[in-house]
Specification:
about 190 residues; 11 helices; about 0% strand; mainly alpha; about 70% helix
Length: about 190
């Protein structure tokens, strides 16, 4: 794999891959950062993540009108904050999530990612407020109730009945709308 063989730095240093700037580069930058976010990284891989963040920020500076680019950067800074135990990087992630929401205020994924970041920061009340905002909650899109349930669960016992109600809505519709991220996110929240 890319991580175990140490090829990541060669990819990032490649002039062929990142210049001249092309349509494909936009996709390569996005997918490379996504790949790193999905890998279990230790601190020795932090320079690689940092380089991938820089490449993605270059893309956003150049043509940052796609909210998914901002969400991807927000997630990368969330990962960095978690890896280093440094909450200052959550401020960077929050900046990118807010930019994604500003670019596309009806794009639910931006709200979910932002709310999950707030839950990780133990700011669950704020996450609930964000998720109770239109257009996030929609019975036709049950994943919205999953993320609300996570935030409610993290507030504490006083709102467990609300969290269970949100999870009931989600799991009641899950067979129709499977989502591979659910197991990881729910156990991550429960094990805090």
């Amino acid at each position: 794999g890319l991580m175990t063989q140490g090829k990541g730095h060669r990819v990032l240093a490649s002039e062929f891959i990142f210049s001249p700037y092309t349509y494909s580069q936009r996709l390569i930058r996005y997918e490379f950062l996504k790949y790193l976010e999905e890998q279990p990284l230790d601190k020795s891989r932090l320079p690689l993540l940092d380089e991938a963040i820089v490449k993605m920020e270059e893309l956003v500076d150049r043509e940052g009108t796609n909210p998914y680019q901002h969400i991807r950067l927000g997630r990368a800074f969330d990962k960095k904050a978690t890896m280093l135990g440094d909450p200052s990087f959550f401020k960077m992630s929050e900046k990118y999530y807010k930019q994604a929401i500003a670019l596309s205020p009806t794009r639910q994924e931006a709200y979910y990612a932002y709310a999950l970041s707030l839950v990780r920061q133990k700011r669950s009340e704020e996450a609930i407020k964000i998720q109770n905002h239109y257009p996030v909650l929609d019975i036709a899109i049950p994943i919205s109730y999953f993320y609300l349930g996570l935030a409610q669960f993290n507030v504490g016992k006083a709102v467990y009945p609300d969290a269970l109600y949100s999870f009931e809505i989600f799991f009641g519709k899950k067979a129709q709308n499977p989502d591979s991220r659910v197991s990881k996110n729910i156990y991550e929240a429960f094990l805090r």
